[in-house]
Amino acid sequence: MTTLSEIESLLHDQRGAPPIADWHPELSGDIDIVIKADGRWIHEGGEIKRHKLVKLFASILRREDDDEYYLLTPVEKWRITVEDLPLQIIDFEVNDVAAGRRIVVKTNVDTWLELGEEHPLSVATDSATQEPRPAVRLNNGLQARVSRACFYNLVELAECRNGVMVLLAGGKEFELGSI
């Protein structure tokens, strides 16, 4: 279990994100970048392997009301392709305190967010496979797919209520699915 001060450190030890909510340039066009369902970023057929470059691109990524994804600068806006969700939840830390449980999740671009009102966890069911499809709402219209390992570790923290697994975190209750 992680201490409360360690949780606070994870949340506050991040550099400020670019103010892309304030950027509204005209569409510059499409760029040949695809974010694969497994989280890999592909540019012109080749994988972008530099983690710092992926982090940079992720920091200027926004999903807009047209359900399209864009890389933004103050003067440019480039549409990209996303196969599933653009980011993934790959780890989490838990702190149970008297006031309630806090869970912070880590994305594949090293961003930490606390599950709760601002960053809720939702679980849809894949209609073809009946597999759970958990996701966490991020900033800028984005969501992150929760990795299978993280999801099943979160399920272990949940309690069963009337046949439904419920996870308590950040003062909220998140339904993980029926048993």
Automatic annotation (TrEMBL):
Residues 18-84, 86-176 form the DUF1285 domain. It comes from the Bacteria. This is DUF1285 domain-containing protein.
